[in-house]
Fold this sequence. Notes:
The protein has helices at 32-41, 63-82, 141-144, 147-155, 203-207, 211-226, and strands spanning 49-51, 54-56, 86-90, 94-97, 100-102, 106-110, 119-120, 126-127, 132-137, 159-164, 169-176, 179-182, 191-192, 200-201. The protein is α+β, with helices and mostly antiparallel strands and 228 residues long.
Amino acid sequence: MPRIKNIILPATRRARGRTRVAPLRPGDHLDQKTFHARYEAMPEHIRAELIEGVVYMPSPLKSPHGEMHAHAVGWLSDYHQATPGTRLYDNVTVILGASSEVQPDAALLLLPEQGGEARTNAQGYLEGPPELIVEIAWSTEGYDLDTKKNDYERAGVPEYLVIALRHSQVFWFLARQGKFRALPPGPHGILRSQVFPGLWLDPAALLRGDMARVLEVLQQGLGSIRQR
Length: 228
């Protein structure tokens, strides 16, 4: 099976200095177009999201978040490289609707020719729901499992994975009739994507940082496809 070697990184916001634009403030109620214009005018190091029409600006990221982010992207990267027809994004801006512009930790997509719904617009941003969104929740756990979950559900995201560090839990939601339902684990507690064949995860191994086990289970999932 051919291997895909590239991970597509997010488009960088361009600095704006031509006109004065009001800065973003946490809690602002904005539509997506107004939010986007203000976000592009902010300094490059600022991160903000529009969730259900409200501006959220997460606090600086701590080392547990950064380490788990690297583990999650490594797991997704191995799957992406082994699976033609997929695309992997790390911290990319995604426009989901008139009141939603988010920047998930990771997103795995099907290419349009494989039935994927997300598209890159003329400005280089993603529009439409990725097939799988992954969030690492530390300071953001409160809204990753609440308002952001509602936003993703409303936008039609098929699968949503939250790695909640404070409570050492992994939540994998699957859309069924427009509502998120918990993805039931299979034998040995392994979670298996319903959208991406062979994308298997041992959540306990991921939480304890046992990446050898995480990647072993992933290879078992990929092997199950080859045996069909």
